[in-house]
Amino acid sequence: MVRVVLDGEPREAPPSGSLLEFLRATGRSVPSVCYHPKLGPLATCDTCLVVVDGRVVRSCATQLEEGMQVDASSPTVVAAREAAMGRLLENHELACTICDRNNGDCELHNTALRMGIQIQSFRPKPYPVDDSSPFYSYNPSQCILCGRCVEACQEVVVHEVLHIDWSLEPPRVVWDDGAEIDRSSCVSCGTCATVCPVDALLEKSMKGRAAHFSGLSAPARSHLVSWVKEASPDLEPLWLSSEIEAASRAGSIARTKTVCPFCGVGCSFEVWTRGREILKVLPRAESPANGIATCVKGKFGLGFVNSPNRLTEPLVRDGDRFRTTGWDDALDRVASRLREIRERYGPDSIGIIATCTGTNEEAYLTQKFARQVLGTNNVDNCARYCQAPATTGLFRTVGVGADPGTFADIESAELVMTIGSNAAEAHPVLAGRIKRAQKQGRLKLLVVDPRRHELAARADLFLSPRAGTDLVLLNAVARYLVDQGWEDRRFIAERTQGFDRWKESLAKFTLEFAEEATGIPRAEIVRTAEMFHAARTACILWAMGVTQHQNGSDTSTAICNLLLVTGNFGRPSTGGYPLRGHANVQGVSDFGCLPAFLPGYERVDNADARARVEREWATPLPSTKGLTSTELVDAILDGRLHALYILGEDKLLADADEAKVARAFERLDLLVVQDLFLTRTAEYADVVLPVAASLEKEGSFVNTERRLQRLYRAFPPLEGTKTDGEILTALANRLGARWTATSPSDVLDEVARVTPAFAGASFARLEGFRSLLWPIRADGTDTPVLHLERFNLPEGKAHFFPVDTTEPAPVDPEFDLSLDNGRVLEHFHWGNLTYETPGISAKVPGSYVEVSSVLADERGLREGDTVRLVSASGAVRTRVHVTDRVRGRTLFLSLNDRGEAAVNRLTSDVRDPPTSTPDYKGTRVRLERIDPAGPLESPVRPSNPRGKLRRPQHGVEVAKKWARPDYRPPGS
Amino acid sequence: MARPIRSRPPASATSPVAASGAFGTDLVASADSLRAFLALLRLLDEKGFLRFGSDLLREEDRVVEVLTQRLPASDVRGAMRAATALAAAFRDVDPAALASWTARVPRALAEAERAAAGPPIGPIEVLAALNDPDVNRGVRMTLGFLRGAGRSPGP
After folding, report:
1. Are residues A443 and A541 in the same domain?
2. What CATH number should be reported for the domain holding residue A836?
């Protein structure tokens, strides 16, 4: 503690932290408009002034020191603050009563009100409103130039688009080098609008909707404001009327905490609604995974919930058409057909695929329905298409198939390596945390990927090995480390087994061999090893670029081996992190929707675990491993599987080799699909059941960190729909089960009873923004970092697991190009959800194939040409975008197409043997040109942020403000 | 062989209106009035008045709290006086006379509509119209009303 004198009284203060935080802790109301706890001191508004040892200073930017004499309330201080506030108010016209931000949380309003400000001298800026973005607008005349948006853009999410041009008269916020928002490099994450303390940056969903009297035209508003100003001598009528307006508004605008339904980062936020209308998404500083950050999908992409295309009645197949029916008829029909098929062909003739965007509680009910009600372990989820090989790699080496730590561990590591992961587009909020740490010089970034995507462009070292050779690169780096004697001998001796045998397995992975196989120069392989050697803590993040190969499990294992030999497991800021792709793919696996595992990853052939569940369910359970999602397709085609029940997954588009999956669907005796929309998979269904969206239900998700978070119901399910849990319960009880759990909370309580890993999980412990990382002990203690004491393997030690190269499938010379594929930032997979948001569709209306300039020159291709890509499985038609993001003879086709450019028309069902995950990334194609493009027919719209020049800088550059001739220093 | 079906059926016909029998008939009979009423409602909603009114009522506790916190009683005194005077003026109105006066309003509006549809009139026609005893009485009432409304409410 340090001792200070505050307003004449001796006080003790914490040794670190700002003076502002200390003053607030003492209960003083200190104005601080530009300060935000997630942004730190910006020092732009000059309202938090105090006098320290006789000098007027900004308390936000002043660190506590022993013996400080602080004057926080004298007339001098008050006058200095009021002068600063007056200057701020020159930049913002107070019209709070008709302002969409008047929700009780406008910091300028609240501060001015608390300070008793009664006079404003407003000077409008001579710039028009920028209304070009479909998602948010910027009104320079209302901008107080606090710089929060700039700080967030430059230093939190690190998109590096916004800055304040302090040289302008008057200054304003600028996108890139002065572009309109919709023509800039802005990726529409919306974080700027989230942190804006006023209504200068405003979500369009709020604009004209949140305030009462929102129907007033702009001239009418202007006249009204002028009239009120003329009529009243001071601001008192404004304060009174706006306070009444804000108070009245609170009753009709609900703020509900939820968790984003898209990727596995697990961003949590408040969703503001009036009835079913979504006014805005507001992440909070206390959001554990994301803080104040979001991406375009989470912030602006929830439009699908109110789409007119939602299914609202059950559909049943009637010859070659669907007809609507009531819920009782639909459920009776499904139950009786499942009963018939089970009796005729046995329980293993039925398969279930769980939804990765449903809740944990619904996942638990899904596998319970399969195991208890139907009597089969044929239950799987979409992790089969993506992360099952990563889980295998982790199980083999450290014994737990999940991320060992948190995002805080990743961003506090000295070295982060991403491999086969385009995190900036697929996991953008996590990527922001990595970019921030790198920009601030806290970590080195090493990227391995076939594409020069955003993180690759930012990397300290970027390696682009040939497709499918990541394992060779990893083993060569490991061997070089060992050859140099750089292995962590103490860690290896104390915490691992199998080092010597593994070391022997590296014999062939010389630098020469690796250079030949991967195409990476040996010097760069050496540099990679040196970066690992130099870093005290390292994390490796990987995704589908690793796992969706026929050696996905082995490459994942090689990643873990590399981390073990450098001692990078079992400590904070270390470990191997597969990045989960769906909002709850981690939870669906954790809660037992896997053919070999009960909830909590207890094997189905583990008699003790099974007995515990059997006692709870009062039913004997099947003990042999079921079929994986991909094996279910094989089983349909060879006549073993007769019924498939798919919850919330568009399997036709998600699985490899679309034509094969379609053939399989056509052979089924019963296909039941439960979804929000009539998906491509639902088109094959016998019964389609319309479900509620996540905003319409209670429950919990687990993100990629193993973090359980609650979601609350923002509004009731769309009329005619039911939650997955309600449907499963109704079906189970029709089939003779007696499920009595009436709420998701009851279900989580049951999970806690049967699953040691969730023994302490409960809704009460997940209240609000609280979260828990499993395993969770009965007393509620959670586990942010795994393996600190022991690994979950025999003797508590990690295992080096030797892996070798896999003989690649023979390449038909006809298919001379390698096809990479993956997500784009704006769309979630094929776009079933995201195309329902018009702004997103406008920016990225479809997919296109990325072609290198080298290949384009060689084939005479031009931007916008229409081409056919043909593989051994099928063909797609798409348009060309020439870019240096891809190299040589590698193409990239994004996933966001549901028709003639759907990427899985091209992929094959070659699989990773341990997991049956398809080798999506090993696809070979040939390219045929169909139509030449007309002039300026790029498939990349002008509003697409790609290819624009960003404008990086450090923060808001407030020194430039202070250097302006019209700047008046604090207290002057 | 389950071939894909790419189109959705129309929504089922069992809508609440179709099932409501006589009430549905009434709705149809009142269609014009309802449309006008709904248009008014929509306008009130679009302009924010409807929501504001309902929100004020819903949040009356908070609104009262804001009012009582922000408005010193001394500042309200003048408004209270004006409201009291207004109430007193209404107290003096004979209910029968008020009913008689309000009953004339529709007739006056109808007459106004007819007059508005006629040819334009000049100053001479205006002076001539004052000879009409009904017009003259109407002007006298209007001037009297304005005089009463403009008078100070007193101490």
Report:
1. yes
2. 2.40.40.20
Pairing label, strands A2-6, A9-13: antiparallel
Q: Do A251 and B58 touch (CB under 8 A)?
A: yes
Kindly state whether residue A43 falls inside one of the protein's structural domains: yes
Note whether residue A365 is domain-resident: yes
- DSSP class of residue A846 equals S
User: Which residue, among A98, A213, A243, A248, would best test binding to B if mutated, counting the most B CBs under 10 Å from its CB?
Assistant: A248
SS3 sequence of A212-276:
CCCCCCHHHHHHHHHHHHHHCCCCHHHHHHHHHHHHHHCCCCEEEEEECCCCCCCCEEEEEEECC
CATH, residue A542: 3.40.228.10
B window 44-63, beta carbon within 8 A of A: 46-49, 51-52, 54-56, 58-59, 62-63
Q: A599 and A712: one domain?
A: yes
Helix axes A552-565, A388-397, angle to 10 degrees: 40
Asked if residue A494 and residue A444 are part of one domain, the reply reads yes
Do A380 and A393 reside in the same domain of the chain? no
3-state helix, strand and coil shares in percent for chain B, rounded to the nearest 5? 75, 0, 25
Instruction: Assess contact for A687 and A333: CB atoms under 8 A.
Output: yes
Q: Which tokens sit at A626?
A: 């079921």
Measured between CB atoms, which of B49, B55, B70 is closest to A248? B55
Is A398 a residue whose pLDDT tops 90?
yes
Mean pLDDT of chain A: 95
Would you call B59 and A214 a contact, using CB atoms and an 8 Å cutoff?
Answer: no
Whether A539 is covered by a domain: the verdict is yes
To probe the interface with A, which of B1, B3, B46 has the most A CB atoms within 10 Å?
B3
Distance from the Cα of B40 to chain A's closest Cα (Å) equals 14
What CATH number is associated with residue A30? 3.10.20.740
Residues of B in contact with A211 (CB under 8 A): 48
Torsion angle (degrees, nearest 10) of CA B97, B103, B104, B105: 120
* B113, pLDDT greater than 80: no
Overall size of chain A counted in residues: 972
Residue of B1, B3, B7, B8 to mutate when probing chain A, most A C-beta within 10 A: B8
Q: Which residue of B has its CA nearest to A97?
A: B52
* SS3 label, residue A891: strand
Which pLDDT value is given to residue B14?
53
In this structure, the answer to whether residues A484 and A520 fall within a common structural domain is yes
Rounded Cα gap, residues A784 and A775, in angstroms: 9
Considering only alpha carbons, which residue of chain A is nearest residue B71? Answer: A240
CB contact under 8 A, A240 and B7: no
**Number of domains forming the structure of chain A:** 4
Q: What is the pLDDT of residues A824-859, one digit of tens each?
A: 999 999 999 999 999 999 999 999 999 999 999 999
> What is the pLDDT, as a whole number, of residue A928?
96
Quick check: B42 contacting A, CB < 8 Å?
Answer: no
Entry pTM: 0.89
What is the rounded distance in angstroms from the CA atom of residue A827 to the CA atom of residue A728? 29
**Residue B51 C-alpha, separation from nearest chain A C-alpha, in angstroms:** 7
Does A786 reside within a domain?
Answer: no
CA distance A575 to A775: 17
Q: What pLDDT is attached to residue A941?
A: 95
Report the chain B residue with the minimal C-alpha distance to residue A236: B70
The answer on A671 and A627 residing in a single domain is yes
Same domain, A452 and A511: yes
Angle among Cα A779, A782, A784 to the nearest 5 degrees reads: 165
CB-based contact, B145 to chain A, within 8 Å: no
Whether A213 sits inside 8 A of B54 (CB atoms) is: no
Is B22 an interface residue toward A (CB < 8 Å)?
no
Domain, as residue range, for A546: 388-578
Q: In the numeric block, which tokens belong to residue A459?
A: 């990397």
Q: Tokens 């809508």 identify what position?
A: B15
